[in-house]
Amino acid sequence: MATLEGRPLRIALAGNANVGKSVIFNELTGLHQHVGNWPGKTVERAEGTLSFRGYTIDVVDLPGIYSLSTYSIEELVSREYIAVEHPDVLVNVVDASALERNLFFTLQLMELEPRMLIALNQIDMAEKKGVEIDVGALSEMLGMPVVPTVAVKGVGIQELMDQVIEVIESDGGRARPPTYGPEIEERVLELVKAVENVDTPYPRRWVAVKLLEGDSEIEGIVYDHDPSLRDKVEAISREMEEIHGHDTPSVLASERYALASRMALEASTIVTPGRSWGSRFDEVTSHPVLGYLFMAASILAIFFSIFSLGDYITGLLDIAFGALNEAYVGVFGLGVVVTFVWDGIIDGMLGGFGIALPYIVPFYIVLSVLEDSGYLARIAFLMDSVMHRIGLHGKGFIPLMLGFGCNVPACLGCRIMETERERLICAFVASLVPCAARSIVIMGLVADYVGFPWAMLLYLIDFILIFLLGRLAFKAVPGEPMGLIMEMPPYRVPSVKVTAQRTWFRVKDFVYEAFPIIVVGNMVIILASMVGLLGVVERAMSPIMDLWLGLPTATGVVLIFGVLRKELTLILLASLMGTTNFADILSPIQMFVFAFVVMIYIPCIATIAVLVKEFGYKRAAIITASEIALAIVLGGIIYRILMVVGFG
Amino acid sequence: MSSESVEDYLRAIHSYNEKGELAKNTDLAKQLNVSPPSVTQMLQRLADEGLVEYTPYKGAMLTGKGMAHAQRIVRKHRLLERFLHDVLGMGKNKVHNEAGMLEHGLSDEAAAALCQTLKNPETCPDDSSPLPPCPLDVESCEECPEARKDRPFKLLTELANLKPGEEGVVAFVRGGTKACQRLLDMGLTRGTKVKVINAAPFFGPIEVEVRETVLALGRGLAHHVFVEFENGLEGMKDGASRGRHQRHGRRQWQR
Questions:
Q1: Would A463 be classed as within a structural domain?
Q2: pTM for this predicted structure
């Protein structure tokens, strides 16, 4: 078609979570993709390109959602994208093994009247569950092509793209919104007429339906334009409530589900299902006792392996970086500029790799496997009641768990929460979790020199702080708290390819986002130290360090460098004091206070970078400032308490 | 065994379960003033009917269905206590026994009317225990007079009260929050069959089978979903007493 030449086609993937949407996306775009954020939102926007039959095709992977309401930012982003940016084709990925719920979402997409088709994915899972689906019948009922796929095995992807092109080339019509029962339909049409002159990017019928559902965003747009419509909508809504005896949103949801249910029933044949290994495994992993034991064992195993692996790789990297430095000095000498280039720029880069390679890559791999297998959902299920005590629901445990390795993936992991509010609270709490670097300081200083129980006391204090601050943030941040609503996906064997791809993209994302900030931060501090600014800062900080915290003045500089990487504090302390026997330079009380301050005082620069990226400068600054204040205030109090009780 | 004594048992078991405890055989015997062997016998029978989960030597816990029955009678009991105390001015120490006698004769409709007249009280007067939730599909008390005409009342309870293995049908979702809308989106619409398949300990979430998929629902949210049981218990419906008292009840208490 002539009109299509010269511009890339745009297709968007939409569907529920856990339907294999991202797998299809990866199959389509391979390594030609880029993961960023939707403008101003903490919602991941994955985009990629492919060439197919001479066309260049841009693919956008919309977030996995269940509805087009205003429940989560993902839903808002998705509906806006479909209505405003008009992709050439919307591919609705449907899970064949949960047809009814998926079609509920399909019906909502159809109301946006895009040009669309269905990728009926996971037909193998459906067959395992004992369901056979009549693709032709489904296609006829929906009035659009339906392509069966098994994305993890690459089955049906070619056919899917053939259909996409065909739909575009033949300029297949737009989706026809579903028809409701006559008494609803009549009122929807009445409203469609009423909103005729209101200018929105959305189809009128959809606007009418959303008004009946009480959608706050659409209400805002429409009532701003014509406030008199409010009365009309309310009157119609009341009529519907009187007829059905239930409120309008639930009437509409019931109607949609009735339609979806009828379609699913007509399109599927039930054959005998077999009991899968997954459901047997599920009985153990969700069991009230065994489930917790299994969870504790697997988390411990994960941490142990990641930490020992990370430790090993860090060792190797140190040797490699040392050799690199020697070679560098050998070639360029030790001039001021040369030293600055190394300390300020190269060292920052290497520092970034020193975090990313040993800890973040393994964490991402494990996270992806946990996600894909379905076990992550079980962890969230088991931890829900504990997390509720700090105002979050079960899913929030996952970022916190990640935090023990590194706060960076933890803060990124907060995206699994539904609302901005939940994400913020979760990230704030996660930034207080003692990460690997902080554990190095706590263990290397307090456990080794003061005693293991004192190190455990530090962890305990941290957990209490997390609990209290979580509650405080929960009370202070405005908004409606969310309960846990989550689909429990059946257990699956994770695909190596999917895991590798996902890990690669996440690491790439981290490198792009965090490295510049780490390098710049590093440069600023090195520059400050070269021009002697650090001495000034040290003197300025000495009242706090000396008088309030009871620490040696030199620790001020140590803490400043610690912002880069917290484990640096220990190394630097040794080099500044000229000894690695910390007992010579710090009293046990000082060690305890110092380790406490290091634990709390500020998120490291990489974490701050992620907080900025996710929540903006203002909120990142608030979190940072409050943690600094907290560390100073509590550090001083702890110092005094320990002095009074005559410890050490 | 009369329906009255079944109701007494369920109310007694409820009084322990609502504090998060199992109802022990000896405690029930003391509270109901009967011998421990007959308690054992009754608990066994209630377990056979699917109203309680009974573990010998440990105690009894109401099932969802048992809870539905218990909530209906406890609600009447506590409404009557409120009435006796607030309106008739009886002493706090007397209302419990008096209500225990009246509750069996009070119809569902009259109880709803009483509730509205008393302005939807939240707790009972003697020990401030909360009233079980209103069983009508209403958003406010204004809708009550219309809604309470439907008889018989549905036998229902919150989804959160169902025990693993129990099934029910969604009657309605109460509350207008976004999260409640989400419950509808996830398929918990009126008339949908749900089955609880697992419950996390410490009042954690429950796993619910709905529309061929499994959802994890926080306990708080599961309290917004009201589930109806298809078959009431034969011989346990408050049929006989309801017919006799309903008209009088209404005239007496509705202003």
A1: no
A2: 0.81
